[in-house]
Amino acid sequence: MAGSLRHLATYQKALLAARSSPRLSTVLPANFTAIRTSTSINKDNEAFAKVHDHSTHFKIERYWAAGMLPILPASYFIHGPVMDAVLTVAITLHVHWGIQGVMADYGRPYVIGDAAAKAGKISVYILTGLLLAGLLHFNTNDVGLTRAFELKEKPIEESEPRQRGLFTVVPTTKNDEIPHCSHGPDFFACAVYRSDEAKCNFHTEVDENNKKIEKPEPEEPAPKKPRIVREIVKKDVPWDYGCIPKKLKKIPKEDTLLYCRVCNDVFANKHACICEPVKRSILRTPTRLLQPLDSQAGEAQYFFSDESLGVVLSAIDEAKVDGVLCIGAPRVIETLKIAKTEHQLFLLDYDRRHAHFFPSTQFAQYSMLVDHFFDPKSEEKLVNFFKNSGKVLIVVDPPFGAFIDPLMKSLEKIKHRFLGSRPPNSTGSFHSIIILPIYVGKHVIRNDKSFWMSDYRVTYDNHKVFSKPSKSIVRLFTDLPAKCFDLSDVEGYRFCDMCETYVTEKNQHCFKCMACTSLAGQYNHCDRCKRCVKVSYKHCRQCFEHFLSRLLLMEEKEDEIAGLRQTACFAIGLATLALSTIIIILPLLFNQAQDVQSKLEHELQFCTVQTHDLWDELAKVEEVTGQKSRLKRQYAVGYPTDNYVSGGHRSLVNNFNSGNTAEQVPSPPVSQNYETEAYISAATASVSSKN
């Protein structure tokens, strides 16, 4: 119905335009005859009729190809599933339209046959489906299209476990001559300031051929230690173990007690250096009096918070040990000493200032990575401590950047000293608590299967990040039973009945692994690897494992780089969207407008010509029939009846020529649909035959 109304409206507009347009008979020369209709020579050829014009198809394909231009450079900067999907759709459509255009041009039915043409069309869709499936599989189970661009620009390194700092532990014997610097024996470099040559420039090399350590040149004078605010440690001074507690016994309580940070000592009433008054109680906790060392290159000191200290002390009580050895955890020792417990106590620390607060039977300056005692007599004092302790618990708080291999070897040597100090046929136990970040502590579990990791988040008072439990990645690695760590009074933890230990509230139990595996966020269980991994990890079919301890191929970049990339991606996305709109949408709209304009012009010209011919027919009908009514003339020419002659409608001209003068024109029905181009009256033919 809509099409019929459009034709009727067009017809009425053409009639109005014909009144002011020149007649066809006045335009054409006298010897020319207007051709009313024309048909193609291939009109009856069905195969030819099925072949449509695909010039528009090629235009759209070219516009789409031009629109892909900004997508390709954007893929180098924008990485993610959304960009992978956009690139997949663009490539699939581009390839599909290209192959389809070739088949439509060279695979026509009347050229290669109907069967081959159908097979060609089907093969195009099959190839497109395979391409789409392959790209989706690559995006889902592999790195994805956008990450492939990055990996192409930045080749993947070998996925072998990296050697941190390229350091290794050289096996030595007692007879080997090991090079020394002022900070202790070395493994390729200074054991304390291995990464800061400004503090200690000592380094030595190993002869790869002879497997011997080259003897270094005489060491230059030791560099100055890092300055501490209002505090300087003098050199070449006696150890003076426990000198401060000894003086406190001699100084009367009514005198003003002064503490000198330069001398690291206490004085009564006055002293030559600048001092500050202190209370006797604060001298019992050196970690709250001394300024922490802040050299990140080798001597950074961080002390446990009260909550973490309480968890460690509770574990010591539950372990039922009689000897506590702390390496780098002075706050634990001083707290136990204040509590006056029955435990035997000993502190091994690199900070020499603690020697003035502890006797020689409880302190030794020690370098944990190379198992070095700076005071030769201290090792003997440690052995005596082991002799008086049947069950020993060692609490180790190493630097965050410490190497695990030399640390574990030092702990093994300490354990051998403990076992060597035991009398024959005596029983004893040796347990450990090592405080390490998650990414470092996993090496401890690999070296010793008896260790396990507690979910408790260790916090420090003077650390900017690790002072909050939600941001701390430091955990307790121990071989003590899980029942020793009671976190019922600590907020954010729950008891897992399956694991029989306390875990964080967000840690979910995996019934396949039979453990709570959600250490840092949500984890999924991989049936192939038979363990839980992070959600972002993808299974590698070539390696048949997740690179949990390696640099993962699918692991996202650091948050800082990701933030910069998101900003750049947002700007590029806006530019890409604007450019795509200009390249794709505007040409399509312009092309569509041109097509509509061309069709309207063609239709108007056709209607004008038809109108001219119609007026000529009406004039001849008026001359033959003598009818003056315009309405009757329209019915005589174009009104349809139920009688057909040679495929055309019978008119009054036929009735008049046959001698039938009766009125046979019925009243026109309401809303009669007229198809004027389909009704060519026979009146002109009748008039021409009479002439």
UniProtKB/TrEMBL annotation:
Membrane topology per record: Multi-pass membrane protein
Chain positions recorded as heme b binding sites: 94
Sites where the protein binds a ubiquinone: 106
TM stretches of this protein: 570-590
Protein name per its UniProtKB record: Nematode cuticle collagen N-terminal domain-containing protein
SMART domains xref list: Col_cuticle_N
PANTHER family per UniProt: RRNA N6-ADENOSINE-METHYLTRANSFERASE ZCCHC4, ZINC FINGER CCHC DOMAIN-CONTAINING
Keywords from the named record: Cytoplasm, Disulfide bond, Iron, Membrane, Metal-binding, Methyltransferase, Mitochondrion, Mitochondrion inner membrane, Repeat, Transferase, Transit peptide, Transmembrane, Transmembrane helix
